[in-house]
Design the sequence.
C-alpha cells in the first residue's frame, strides 16, 4: 500500500443540543475514529443508521469541523482549515449522496449542473468546460450525450440521476470520492450497475473511494477493506473477505448472522438476534458500547472499561475484550 | 379453489392524473390459504403499494376503474358498499401497515389513545376493554405496557414499529397487509421484527400479504411469492420453487442483481428502467429489458400455469 | 427560472378562468397606462389638474358621466357652447355702422333644447376691444313660445363675465313676471334657470312639478360700440348635467383625466413597491437563514423592531410632516418595509431548503456562500414566493389611495385616492354625487381583483398542496 492519501487520527465530532435553557448536551456522533486510506484504495464503512458513519464521511470532507482529532490529506493538515483555505480540497474530493434526485438542483439542466464545479474552480474557457462535460458524461455512460445535456433531473430515471451525481463528483478529477449510501434509494436491479460504474472509475483513474453503507452484502463486490462502525466507534477492521469469512466482534457476528439471503427455509428459522437497539449517542453506555446487547458480555469488564482496538490477526482489528490477551 | 382463504381474481385499479390514466393494478390474480403469507415483490413504481391499498379500499381521489373479485373466506368484498366495508372489513377483518409506518403515529396523542381507536370507533369494545387488549398485545410483542401512556417521540424506531403491528393484531384480523414494514429500521431491529412476525404467524395464524422490494428479506416470511412488474403479476410461485429457480426472465434477472452474503455468485444488473404505468407498452411489458426476448413478445403473453394455481406470464413458458 | 418552465407555468395558468380574468384586467391596466402616458404626458396632466377655473370654464360643475343618460328616464342636458368667435349654425354676428364712429352690433345665439332637465348653469362671457368708450349692451332671452325677456342692460369692460344663473336681481324680476302672468303668488324662490327654461303654467307653481319647455331658444345681444375699431365677441355656455365618460368634479375638471392617470400611478407604485420590497426581503431572509448564528440573530432582531412599528400610522406621520412627492413616498414605503415581517416567512422556507442534499453537494464541490444563496437557494424558493409577491401589489395600491384619502398624499398628481379625497371633502355623498366616489373606488377594486385572481391562481400552481384536483 502506497503512502496514505488520507489519514484520520482520533477523530471526534460532537453536535451540541440544547436541553434546557441553560444546559447543553452533545450528540457524540463520531467518538474517536482512526482511519488510513491509500491512493487508489476502496474501503467500506459499514454500520446501521445512527452509528455515525455519515457524519464520519462528511467530517472527512470537512463539511463539518472536527471537535477533536486530526485529518491529514495528501500530507496536509486540514483539521481546522477555514472554508476559504479549503477550496483546493474541494477540488480533490467528491461527494456522492444517497438521494440522487435531492442531490441535483431541480432547476438546473444537466449541462449547468456539470458546469458549476468547473466554473467555481476557475475553468474559464467555455470550450474547455464543454469538452470536460462531454467527456465525463461518456464516462458514466449517459450517452448519447446530446440527448441528456439539456434535460432536467426529473426527466431522468433514478439510475441516470445517480450517474449524473457521480459525473459531477469526478469532473474535477479528484483523488478521493466519498459515496454515502449511493445505491440505497435505487431499485435492486440498478444497484449493481452503479456499483460497477464506481468500481470501473476507481480502477481506471486510481480513485480512492470511501463507500458508506448499511448493506454489508454489497461490500464484497466493491471494497478491499471494511470498517465496521457501532455507536460512533469503529469496532472492527479487516480485509473484506476476511471479515465476511471470519467476523470477530460479537456485533459483526450478529450482523452477518442476521442478514438474509433469498432462501425459502428462512421462514422457519427464528434467528438469534441481540435484543435492544443501538444506544443513544448523548449518553452512551460506559465501557464497551455494545455491552447491553452482547451475548458475550463479561460483567465488571465490558460495562466498565472501553476496550482497546486490538490487532487480533494480521491486519484484522477488533475493539473487544474477548481478544485481550492480558 | 373455493376453499382458499383469500382469492383475488382479475383485480384492477386505475386512477386519473393530469397526465393521463395510471394503470396501477392491471389485472392481478393470486390466492392464499389460511395462515399463509404471500410476498409481493417488485421495484419502485410497479404498483405493489397500490395493490395493498386497493385491497383495503384506500383509493386515490381520482380512481377511474376499480373492479375484480376479492373473495375473503368466500365473501366477495367488491360487492360491499363503502359503509359495509368500513363496518365489517376495514380494520376488522383486514388491517394495513403502511410504508414508513414509524411516521404513521400521531405525535400529539398518547400511544394508548391511538391504539384503541379502531376498536372503540367501531364499537367492538369499550375504552377500558380496549386498553386492556392493547396492553396485552404490546406485552406479547415485547413492549412494556407503560408505553401506553407515552408519546410516540419517546419511543425508538423499533418500538414504534411494534406498536403499529400491535395495533393490527388487536383487532384479530384475518388478513394483514404489510407494506415495507421494516424499510426504515436498521438490520438488527429488522431481524427482531421479522422474528416477531414469524411468532405471530405461528400463534395467531393470520393470512399476510408482505410487500417489499427486498427479495432476500421476503424469504423470511413468504410461503408464496408474487412478482409484480409494471402493474401486473408476472410470476406467482411457491417459495421453495421461486427462491431456488425463478421462472420469469424478470425474476431471474432480479435474483442475479441481488448480492448474497453466503454464496459467491456473479452479479448482473438490468439495463434501462421499468415502463411508466401511464402508458404501458403493448405486449410483454418487460420485453425492452429482457435478454431472451423474441418476436412473439410484442403480443400480450398468456398465463401459463406451472403447478396447481401458480403461473407465469411469459411466452418462453408456453409450450407448443 | 428557465424559459421552458415559464412557458409551462403559463400553459397551466391559462387553464384557470380566474387567472385569465386577472391577466386580462392587468393587461387592460397596462394598456391604459401606456396610452395615458403617451397621450397625456405627466407634465401636461399635472398642469391640467392644477389649472384653475379659467381652463375648465367650459365644463359643467359636478356633472355625471354622459352614459348616465342611458339609465335615466329623464334626459339630462349636455353642455352647449356657442361663441361668436367661431361662426356656425346658431350663431350670428353683425356690426352695422350707424353715425360717425358709432356702430350697432348684434349677436344672436340660438339652440334647440330638447332635454328633460334644466341646465346646471348659464353663463355669458364677453371679450371687447376698445380704447376708452365701453360698449353698451342689452341682453335678450327668447323662449320657444316666442316671449322675449330682457335679461340685463350693461356696459362692459374688456373682459366681462355675466353669470346669468346666479343673478338674484334677475331671479326676482322673473319670478314677479311669472307671478303676474299666472295671477298667482309663488311660494318659493324660482331659480333663474327655471324661469328661463320652464313651461309657464301651473306646473311652475310647485318646484316638484316644474317642466322644461322644449324648443328653440334664443339669446340675442344688441349693443352699441363707440369706436371704429372696437369689436365685441360673446360666448354663451348652457351648462349641462352630464359630461364626458367620467363626469366632472367640483372644479369642473374632467374626472376621466384623473381616472386615466390613476392607472399608471397605481401600477407603478404597487408593482415597484412590492417587487423591491420582496427582493430585499428575500435576500435578507436568505442571508439570515444561511449564515445563522450572529447574522441571523441580528437580522431577526432588527426585523422584529420594524414589525413593532405600526406601518400605516408611521406612514401617515411621515406623509404629514414631509408632504412627500409620490416618488419620495415610494422610497419611504420601501425603506420602512425592507425589514418587514415577510422576512420571517421567507426565512422559514430558506431554512428548509438549506438542508436539501443538493445544497450540501454544492458545498462539497466548493461553491461559496453567496453563490449558494443566489444560485441554489433563491431559485428553488422563488416559485413558492411569487404568488405572495403578486398578492402584495394591491396592498401598496391601496396604501397610496389611503394616504391620499387622508389628505397626506402627493398633492400634485391626480390619482384615484385623490379623487376620493376630493369627493369626500366636497361632500359628494351628501350631495348625491355617487359617481364621484364610485368611479375611483371601482378602479381600485378592479385593480386589486386583477392581482388577487392572478395571485391566488399562481398559488394553486406553485403550491400544489392547496390545489384541488
Sequence:
Amino acid at each position: 500500500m502506497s503512502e496514505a492519501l488520507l489519514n484520520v487520527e482520533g477523530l471526534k465530532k460532537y453536535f451540541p443540543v440544547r436541553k434546557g435553557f441553560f444546559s447543553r448536551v452533545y450528540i457524540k456522533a463520531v467518538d474517536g475514529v482512526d482511519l488510513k486510506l491509500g491512493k487508489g484504495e476502496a474501503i467500506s464503512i459499514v454500520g446501521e443508521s445512527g452509528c455515525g458513519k455519515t457524519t464520519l464521511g462528511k467530517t472527512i470532507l470537512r463539511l463539518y469541523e472536527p471537535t477533536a482529532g486530526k485529518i491529514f490529506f495528501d500530507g496536509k493538515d486540514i483539521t481546522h482549515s477555514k472554508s476559504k483555505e479549503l477550496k483546493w480540497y474541494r477540488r480533490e474530493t467528491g461527494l456522492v449522496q444517497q438521494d440522487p434526485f435531492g442531490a441535483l438542483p431541480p432547476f438546473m439542466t444537466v449541462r449547468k449542473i456539470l458546469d458549476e464545479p468547473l466554473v467555481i474552480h476557475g475553468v474559464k474557457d467555455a470550450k474547455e468546460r464543454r469538452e470536460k462535460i462531454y467527456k465525463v458524461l461518456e464516462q458514466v455512460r449517459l450517452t448519447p450525450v446530446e440527448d441528456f445535456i439539456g434535460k432536467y433531473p426529473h426527466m431522468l430515471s433514478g439510475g441516470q440521476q445517480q450517474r449524473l451525481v457521480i459525473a459531477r463528483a469526478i469532473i474535477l478529477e479528484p483523488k478521493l470520492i466519498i459515496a454515502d449510501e449511493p445505491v440505497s434509494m435505487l431499485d435492486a436491479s440498478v444497484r449493481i450497475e452503479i456499483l460497477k460504474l464506481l468500481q470501473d472509475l476507481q480502477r481506471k483513474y486510481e480513485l480512492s473511494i470511501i463507500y458508506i453503507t448499511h448493506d454489508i452484502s454489497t461490500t464484497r463486490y466493491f471494497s478491499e477493506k471494511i470498517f465496521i462502525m457501532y455507536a460512533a466507534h469503529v469496532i472492527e477492521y479487516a480485509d473484506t473477505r476476511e471479515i465476511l469469512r471470519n467476523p470477530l466482534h460479537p456485533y459483526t457476528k450478529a450482523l452477518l448472522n442476521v442478514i438474509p439471503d433469498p432462501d425459502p427455509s428462512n421462514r422457519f428459522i427464528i434467528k438469534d438476534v441481540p435484543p435492544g437497539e443501538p444506544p443513544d449517542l448523548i449518553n452512551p453506555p460506559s465501557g464497551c458500547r455494545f455491552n447491553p446487547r452482547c451475548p458475550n458480555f463479561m460483567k465488571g469488564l465490558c460495562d466498565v472499561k472501553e476496550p482497546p482496538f486490538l490487532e487480533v490477526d494480521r491486519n484484522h482489528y477488533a475493539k473487544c475484550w474477548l481478544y485481550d490477551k492480558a | 379453489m373455493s376453499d382458499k382463504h383469500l382469492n383475488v381474481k382479475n383485480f384492477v385499479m386505475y386512477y386519473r392524473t393530469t397526465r393521463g390514466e395510471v394503470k396501477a393494478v392491471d389485472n392481478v390474480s393470486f390466492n392464499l390459504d389460511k395462515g399463509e403469507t404471500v410476498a409481493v415483490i417488485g421495484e419502485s413504481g410497479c404498483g405493489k403499494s397500490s395493490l395493498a391499498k386497493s385491497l383495503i379500499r384506500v383509493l386515490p381521489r381520482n380512481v377511474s376503474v376499480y373492479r375484480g373479485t376479492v373473495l375473503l373466506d368466500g365473501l366477495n368484498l367488491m360487492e360491499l358498499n363503502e359503509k359495509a366495508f368500513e363496518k365489517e372489513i376495514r380494520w376488522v377483518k383486514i388491517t394495513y401497515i403502511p410504508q414508513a409506518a414509524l411516521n404513521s403515529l400521531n405525535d400529539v396523542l398518547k400511544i394508548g389513545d391511538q391504539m384503541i381507536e379502531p376498536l372503540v370507533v367501531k364499537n367492538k369494545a369499550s375504552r377500558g376493554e380496549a386498553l386492556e387488549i392493547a396492553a396485552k398485545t404490546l406485552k406479547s410483542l415485547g413492549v412494556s405496557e407503560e408505553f401506553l401512556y407515552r408519546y410516540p417521540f419517546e419511543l425508538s424506531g423499533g418500538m414504534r414499529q411494534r406498536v403499529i403491528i400491535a395495533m393490527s393484531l388487536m383487532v384479530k384480523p384475518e388478513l394483514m397487509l404489510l407494506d415495507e414494514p421494516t424499510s426504515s429500521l436498521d438490520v438488527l431491529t429488522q431481524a427482531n421484527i421479522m422474528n416477531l412476525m414469524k411468532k405471530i404467524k405461528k400463534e395467531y395464524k393470520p393470512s399476510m400479504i408482505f410487500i417489499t422490494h427486498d427479495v432476500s428479506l421476503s424469504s423470511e416470511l413468504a410461503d408464496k411469492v408474487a412478482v409484480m412488474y409494471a402493474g401486473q403479476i408476472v410470476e406467482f410461485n411457491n417459495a421453495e420453487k421461486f427462491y431456488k429457480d425463478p421462472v420469469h426472465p424478470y425474476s431471474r434477472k432480479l435474483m442475479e442483481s441481488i448480492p448474497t452474503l453466503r454464496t459467491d455468485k456473479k452479479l448482473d444488473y438490468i439495463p434501462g428502467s421499468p415502463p411508466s404505468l401511464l402508458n404501458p407498452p403493448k405486449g410483454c411489458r418487460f420485453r425492452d429489458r429482457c435478454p431472451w426476448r423474441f418476436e412473439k413478445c410484442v403480443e400480450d403473453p398468456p398465463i401459463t400455469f406451472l403447478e396447481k394455481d401458480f403461473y407465469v406470464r411469459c411466452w418462453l413458458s408456453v409450450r407448443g | 427560472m428557465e424559459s421552458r418552465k415559464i412557458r409551462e407555468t403559463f400553459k397551466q395558468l391559462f387553464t384557470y378562468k380566474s387567472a385569465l380574468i386577472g391577466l386580462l384586467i392587468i393587461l387592460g391596466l397596462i394598456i391604459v397606462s401606456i396610452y395615458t402616458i403617451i397621450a397625456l404626458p405627466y407634465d401636461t396632466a399635472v398642469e391640467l389638474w392644477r389649472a384653475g377655473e379659467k381652463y375648465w370654464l367650459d365644463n359643467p360643475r359636478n356633472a355625471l358621466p354622459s352614459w348616465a343618460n342611458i339609465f335615466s328616464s329623464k334626459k339630462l342636458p349636455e353642455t352647449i357652447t356657442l361663441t361668436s368667435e367661431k361662426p356656425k349654425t346658431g350663431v350670428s354676428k353683425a356690426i352695422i355702422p350707424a353715425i360717425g364712429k358709432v356702430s350697432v352690433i348684434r349677436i344672436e345665439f340660438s339652440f334647440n333644447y330638447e332635454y328633460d332637465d334644466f341646465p346646471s348653469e348659464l353663463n355669458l362671457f364677453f371679450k371687447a376691444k376698445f380704447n376708452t368708450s365701453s360698449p353698451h349692451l342689452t341682453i335678450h332671452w327668447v323662449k320657444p313660445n316666442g316671449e322675449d325677456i330682457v335679461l340685463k342692460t350693461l356696459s362692459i369692460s374688456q373682459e366681462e363675465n355675466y353669470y346669468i344663473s346666479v343673478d338674484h336681481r334677475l331671479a326676482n324680476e322673473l319670478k314677479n313676471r311669472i307671478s303676474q302672468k299666472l295671477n298667482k303668488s309663488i311660494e318659493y324662490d324660482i331659480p333663474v334657470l327655471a324661469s328661463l327654461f320652464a313651461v309657464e303654467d301651473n306646473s311652475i307653481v310647485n318646484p316638484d312639478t316644474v317642466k322644461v319647455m322644449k324648443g328653440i331658444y334664443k339669446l340675442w345681444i344688441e349693443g352699441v360700440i363707440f369706436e371704429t375699431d372696437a369689436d365685441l365677441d360673446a360666448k354663451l355656455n348652457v351648462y349641462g348635467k352630464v359630461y364626458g365618460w367620467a363626469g366632472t368634479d367640483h372644479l369642473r375638471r374632467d374626472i376621466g383625466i384623473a381616472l386615466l392617470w390613476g392607472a399608471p400611478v397605481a401600477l407603478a407604485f404597487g408593482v415597484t413597491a412590492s417587487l423591491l420590497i420582496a427582493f430585499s426581503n428575500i435576500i435578507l431572509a436568505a442571508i439570515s437563514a444561511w449564515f445563522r448564528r450572529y447574522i441571523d440573530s441580528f437580522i431577526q432582531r432588527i426585523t422584529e423592531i420594524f414589525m413593532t412599528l405600526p406601518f400605516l400610522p408611521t406612514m401617515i406621520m411621515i406623509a404629514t410632516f414631509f408632504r412627500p412627492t409620490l416618488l419620495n413616498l415610494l422610497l419611504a414605503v420601501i425603506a420602512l418595509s425592507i425589514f418587514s415581517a415577510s422576512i420571517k416567512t421567507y426565512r422559514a422556507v430558506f431554512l428548509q431548503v438549506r438542508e436539501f442534499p443538493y445544497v450540501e453537494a454544492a458545498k462539497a464541490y466548493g461553491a461559496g456562500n453567496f453563490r449558494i444563496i443566489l444560485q441554489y437557494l433563491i431559485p428553488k424558493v422563488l416559485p413558492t414566493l411569487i404568488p405572495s409577491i403578486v398578492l402584495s401589489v394591491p396592498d401598496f395600491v391601496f396604501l397610496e389611495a389611503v394616504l391620499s384619502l387622508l389628505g397626506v398624499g402627493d398633492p400634485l398628481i391626480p390619482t384615484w385616492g385623490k379623487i376620493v379625497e376630493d369627493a369626500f371633502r366636497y361632500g359628494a355623498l351628501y350631495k348625491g354625487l355617487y359617481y364621484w366616489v364610485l368611479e375611483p373606488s371601482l378602479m381600485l377594486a378592479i385593480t386589486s381583483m386583477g392581482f388577487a385572481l392572478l395571485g391566488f391562481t399562481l398559488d394553486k400552481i406553485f403550491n400544489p398542496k392547496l390545489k384541488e384536483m
Summary: The CA atoms of residues 75 and 289 of chain B lie 40 Å apart. The domain at 6-35+46-81+213-317 of chain B is CATH 3.40.50.300 (Rossmann fold). Chain B touches chain A through 52 residues (CB under 8 Å).
